[in-house]
Amino acid sequence: HTGALKAAAFSPDGQKIVTAASDSTLRVWETSTGQLLHTLTGHKGVPYAVQWSPTGRHILSIGTDQKALLWSGRTFLRLTEYSFPLHISFRPAFHPAGTHLAVPGPRGSVLLYPLLPDEQALIELAYEKRLRELTPAELRRFFLEDPRLDKELPKSRKLPKARLHTVQPNETLFSIAQRYGVSVDQLRQLNRLTSDDIRAGDSLIITYTEE
Question: Given this structure, which CATH class describes domain 5-114?
Answer without folding.
Answer: mainly beta
